[in-house]
């Protein structure tokens, strides 16, 4: 998610670098027993509030011999977007022909909005060398006012095995010309089979595009990307999960998974069966979806399901049981062919006349499309599959799934406890009681600061219609776990939410070795956004990093042991630095003394 920002900014990427500790003599190796973070205060000085991306937090490691060590966390710089690495400018975008997009003075457009990071290693690479995939969610508009293409970048990163220091030695954009370009890439994950699963954060409204295709956002985008003023855009090419494969030589292949549906993806998390995927969706309102692939490790074909919220409580963010509705089964190839040829009016009959709609058998829905207004729809004969996979939110609401979540963003999975942690960034709007709305499944008290929910799973559940879901990872209930706190009156620093609690979490990642959820904020209720650590056993919340005012923290990835070091990847948009936070020992294996 990216909020509006108008001041000149510089982007940030952070990593937790970890130093292997020295422990008591006489032990060849010990194991990490527990990890406890000690948080930092909120920024106090104007310099801290406005200019610094910093940490004064620390971490205490307890080992299985009951010895303890405290490690201070400190920040080190990797690079800043716009810097030159290996003769190339970081954080640039390209046209479809591969040329870097430049201003009339010849300088490249540089993104101040990096998001996801995936640090990965490919067999055949030199020792201590890794690739880092970054998302760049947006770029400044070009000099004619059109949106510049989004971008993903591939950096080469070398690890110093003696100190754990990371150094970027090369950068280049990833080529998306084979899939019509990349549309506002947001969060992402590294798949279990070592590919990068990204996201396109918005799904352009095909109904609005069809009403005025010459001026639509997708037409402007495609004309700029392909440098062809005669093109008419196609909204069905955008709003998908892209998958990037990286080879040892740095070459890449990209696909978009049309069979996973089309929506405002925040993140797609693959479960331990390598088949089931749960989605975070950055929509207001939005749904909760799972996808079950036909084959493990292959997301090119599968079945898509949408959740129905059956509310069971209203306190502390509320709680519910979840029922599942099958939307359909499809392959990338067949939905890709439909995307090439169909318009919105080929899939739906529609009207905004409620009385006429009722009389003619239309169904009212309220989705992010059509300006969140109620629209009345009827699926045309034989178009159910096209509706399910190209108009996923509209069709989910049409068949009775809950499309009322307000910015269900990042999520991650705790395999040992069989739980997921899901962000609801704002408990507002459609998550409150809405008398007269087409559907009103969610009726909760308002918490503008939002929160994180715990989701429970069971295997091989059935849909609402009694059909078995072929997955061991079906969400069956969810409840508020860690909530923010709105302030009736802003505090002395102007914070509108309690500064010692989370506000408008954006992304989360979970570390099993640390039993800790790392939380990145994107909030206007806090004057500074923070990254937090939350221990799921002790319930201790610790502030780890502060972002300069107006910026957001996002792009999390946790790696528990990389050559004896651990890293928490963290991007910060507007402003920041590219770097890493040093301090925590590797936790996933034995630690040598």
How is this structure best described in words?
- This protein is mainly β.
- It has one domain.
- The protein contains 8 helices and 37 strands.
- Helix 7 crosses helix 8.
- The longest helix has 10 residues.
- The protein starts with 11 loop residues before the first strand and ends with a strand.
- It holds the Pfam family PhoX.
Blueprint of the fold:
Blueprint: E1 12-14, E2 16-17, E3 29-30, E4 32-38, H1 46-50, E5 58-63, E6 68-72, E7 74-79, E8 84-85, E9 88-89, E10 114-120, E11 129-136, E12 151-159, E13 166-173, E14 189-190, E15 196-197, H2 206-211, H3 217-226, E16 241-246, E17 252-257, E18 265-270, E19 276-281, E20 289-295, E21 298-313, E22 319-331, H4 332-341, H5 344-347, E23 348-351, H6 354-359, E24 363-366, E25 374-379, H7 384-390, H8 392-398, E26 408-414, E27 419-424, E28 451-458, E29 474-483, E30 505-511, E31 516-521, E32 530-535, E33 541-546, E34 552-562, E35 565-573, E36 578-582, E37 591-592
Parallel strand pairs: 2-36
Antiparallel strand pairs: 1-35, 3-37, 4-5, 5-6, 7-36, 8-9, 10-11, 11-12, 12-13, 14-15, 15-16, 16-17, 18-19, 19-20, 20-21, 21-22, 22-29, 23-25, 24-25, 26-27, 27-28, 28-29, 30-31, 31-32, 32-33, 34-35
Helix pairs in contact: 7-8
Give a brief description.
This protein is mainly beta and 593 residues long.
Tally the structural domains: 1
Biggest beta sheet summary: 9 strands, antiparallel
Low-confidence stretches: 4-27
Per DSSP, the total helix count is 8
Number of strands: 37
Radius of gyration: 23 Å
Helical fraction equals: under 10%
Classify the secondary structure makeup into a structural class. mainly beta
What amount of the residues lies in strands? 35-45%
């Amino acid at each position: 998610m990216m909020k509006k920002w108008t001041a000149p900014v510089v982007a940030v990427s952070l990593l937790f670098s970890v130093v292997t500790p020295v422990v008591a003599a006489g032990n060849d190796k010990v194991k990490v027993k527990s990890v406890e973070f000690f948080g930092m205060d909120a920024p106090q000085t104007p310099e801290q509030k406005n200019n610094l991306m910093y940490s004064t937090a620390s971490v205490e490691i307890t080992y299985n011999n009951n010895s303890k060590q405290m490690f201070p966390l400190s920040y080190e710089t990797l690079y800043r977007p716009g810097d030159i690495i290996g003769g190339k400018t970081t954080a640039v975008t390209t046209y479809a022909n591969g040329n870097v997009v430049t201003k009339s003075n010849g300088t490249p457009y540089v993104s101040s909005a990096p998001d996801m990071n995936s640090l990965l290693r490919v067999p055949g690479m030199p020792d201590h060398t890794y690739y880092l995939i970054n998302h760049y969610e947006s770029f400044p508009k070009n000099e004619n006012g059109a949106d510049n293409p989004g971008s993903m970048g591939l950096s080469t990163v070398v690890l110093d095995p003696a100190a754990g220091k990371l150094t970027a030695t090369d950068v280049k954009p990833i080529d998306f010309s084979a899939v019509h370009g990349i549309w506002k890439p947001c969060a992402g994950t590294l798949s279990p089979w070592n590919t990068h699963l990204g996201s396109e954060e918005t799904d352009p409204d095909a109904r609005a595009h069809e009403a005025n295709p010459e001026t639509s956002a997708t037409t402007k985008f495609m004309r700029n990307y392909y440098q062809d003023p005669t093109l008419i855009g196609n909204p069905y090419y955008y709003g998908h999960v892209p998958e990037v494969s990286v080879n040892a030589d740095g070459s890449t292949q990209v696909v978009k998974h049309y069979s996973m549906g089309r929506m405002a993806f925040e993140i797609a998390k693959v479960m331990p069966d390598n088949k089931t995927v749960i989605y975070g969706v950055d929509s207001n309102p939005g749904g909760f979806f799972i996808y079950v692939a036909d084959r493990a490790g292959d997301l090119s074909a599968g079945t898509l399901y949408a959740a129905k919220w059956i509310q069971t409580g209203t306190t502390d963010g509320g709680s519910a049981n979840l029922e599942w509705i099958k939307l359909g089964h499809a392959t990338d190839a067949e939905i890709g062919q439909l995307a090439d040829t169909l318009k919105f009016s080929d899939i739906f009959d529609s009207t905004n006349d409620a009385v006429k709609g009722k009389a003619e058998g239309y169904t009212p829905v309220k989705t992010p499309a059509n300006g969140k207004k109620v629209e009345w729809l009827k699926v045309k004969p034989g178009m159910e599959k096209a509706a399910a996979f190209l108009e996923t939110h509209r069709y989910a609401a049409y068949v009775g799934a809950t499309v009322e979540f307000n910015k269900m963003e990042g999520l991650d999975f705790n395999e040992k406890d069989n739980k997921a942690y899901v962000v609801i960034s704002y408990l507002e709007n459609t998550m409150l009681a809405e008398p007269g709305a087409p559907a009103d499944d969610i009726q909760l008290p308002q918490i503008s600061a939002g929160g994180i929910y715990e989701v429970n799973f069971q295997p091989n559940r059935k849909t609402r219609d009694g059909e078995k879901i072929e997955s061991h990872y079906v969400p069956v209930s969810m409840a508020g776990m860690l909530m923010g706190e709105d302030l009736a009156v802003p505090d002395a620093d102007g914070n509108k939410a309690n500064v010692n609690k989370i506000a408008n979490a954006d992304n989360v990642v979970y570390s099993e070795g640390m039993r800790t959820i790392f939380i990145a904020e994107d909030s206007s209720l806090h004057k500074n956004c923070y990254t937090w650590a939350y221990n799921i056993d002790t319930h201790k919340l610790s502030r780890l990093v502060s972002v300069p005012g107006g910026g957001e923290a996002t792009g999390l990835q946790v790696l528990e042991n990389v050559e004896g070091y651990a890293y928490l990847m963290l991007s910060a948009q507007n402003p920041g630095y590219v770097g890493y936070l040093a301090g925590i020992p590797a936790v996933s294996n034995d630690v040598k003394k």
